[in-house]
Amino acid sequence: MAPRPEPKTAAPLIPRRPTIGKLRAAAAQCTACPLYADATQTVFGEGPVPAGLMLVGETPGDQEDRMGRPFVGPAGKLLDRCLAEVGIARDEAYVTNAVKHFKWGPRGKRRLHKKPNALEIAACRPWLAAEIALVKPKVLVLLGATAAQTLLGGDFRVSRERGKPIRSSLASYVMATVHPSALLRAPDDATRHREIAHFVIELRRVAAVLEKSY
Ligand code: URA
Question: Ligand 1 centroid vs 160 CA: distance in angstroms?
């Protein structure tokens, strides 16, 4: 039987001597997985380089796709509010996603977010690896299962490890927690308030680690 072709990834597109600007420009042309075809644009990470804190989400949503910036929609606004509550300004952090194109399916006139699959995540991983190598975060926060499993392996369970420091060569302090969209999807106000409070406690720990590392 003929060997199966290797799945396509973004690896050949990574510039030889990358800067964040070169990466962003190269990623804008990425066709390593089919998601580019239905997305408006590549949504690359943004923030200071290097940065003490790096946050990784899943994929851009509808508003991020239109604006070309990560975490600017409802989940991003909640994230910014929670960061501010623990004294972290959003623009102090480098913010990005595991997958850089919006994946969606139509529901009437709306574009509903869909979860990226393993091939799409693997295709996009070289961009994320290159961002981490340049940003060199002291603290890396993984928001949700897609980000956590992309960087820590498919067996990683956010439900089990949430909020705990994880031993990893990616940064001196790595923590995974829930995605802010999950907080917005809480079934009722009481649950949402409780879950947001839990998330803020985790971010407070992150703020304390950051403070100590300066
Ligand atoms: N959810 C994400 O994971 N990333 C975004 O940029 C927006 C919503």
Answer: 22
